[in-house]
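Each lists chain and fold; for instance:
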Amino acid sequence: MPDATLDQALLNLFNNAADVSPAEVEISARWSRNVLEREVQDRGPGIPTTSRAASDTRP
């Protein structure tokens, strides 16, 4: 994935969490087996079950 695309995807993720969460947003990242794992935790309503598969596959 090109850097600019990854940057935009992360920005969208962070902005969405901030927009829908009534409280704080926690962001963490760590390296695991040469893979950067990112996690965003918020207190928002979450992604509906019917939309989760699509959210994992969008470019």
Observations:
- Residues 3-57 form one domain.
- The CA atoms of residues 3 and 46 lie 26 Å apart.
